[in-house]
Amino acid sequence: MEKCVTQICKGDKELEKKFRVLMLEVEVMRQDGRLAPDHIQLDQWKHLLELPSRNQRSSYLTFLWKNEKKRENQKAKKEARKLELENYSPEKSKEYPDDLLYGIQYQSLFLRIRDQSINSFDNYRALQAMMYGQSVIIDCSYEEHMVWRETVNAAKQTTFVFGDNRIHKDPFNLHMCNVNMQGEFMKQLKKNIPSICEPWFPINIHSSSYLDLFPKDKLVYLTPHCRDELTTFDPDSVYIIGCMVDKINNEPLSLAKAKRDGIKMAKLPLDRYLEWAPGSKKNLNINHMVPILLDLRLTGDWEFALRHIPRRKLMETKIMAMQKMLKDTSLGRENIFKKFQSVRRNNFFTRDEKKFKSKRTLYDDDNV
To answer: Is Cell membrane one of the keywords (predicted)?
Structure first.
């Protein structure tokens, strides 16, 4: 712990005093039996120091405790499985003494392909896409509009994007633009993919804008807030996807950025092919957008490409849930329909009702 104090505080007496109070607070939580991890890493201590309130620190420590227990359970399961395999006697499964045993440790008709070989093959295909594939841009300029948790989610989604892209039959040449190399987003991405900054890694990372890298007339910004729909996939265009998790900030930032840069905009034709559930947002994660574009380029079929949209956002899922309630629940049909209608009424308001509701939310004493 003294090493952590030296590395974090660096001779700052005020920061050292604050850090020691924080260490005492965590130790008191452990002694009281509250949820706090046994081991906290250096970057996690730094993040705890940045949190202003005790509730936020308590929530973050609970999150770390759950992750720690999850890793411990996985390790225990792995050790139990290893012990079970060591104690397993394959001779007992033989019907006759001269039977041959088949499996990884015994005889096999197939050549074993190891994970490293598959990983090298996928990276080779992504490197081919960097030379000959169509470019797709991930705009990473929204970090200042996200809180820490949203930044972590955005980095996780970008990790999924890279994985989904490189295992596809015809991957894109991915460009990450407007990247802050010293920011929290890049720090989390390096945690998820430690080799991402290596020169051989099959992805392009730029601190500069996409306007400096590509012709302006070929750029198309995909944003759910515009009016124009993307009807067909254009292989000559360079599509831009905003890397942002907007659970708190719901402003049309991607629309404003595209207008400011003076480039074309488009949105996916979701209403044309899907029946959206009431109350569901039409903002898709980037790890949904890239697979949709990959399948759309390969097949040209919107219905096939839109299979990557989470089913929870669709009306058919709500109807199936309703049918299950009618079938399994002990409640009467009238009570269920009243509950469903109340949900629909809460999701659909007239213009005057929305105006009144927003005013009430802002100025009502009960919501302060």
So the answer is: no
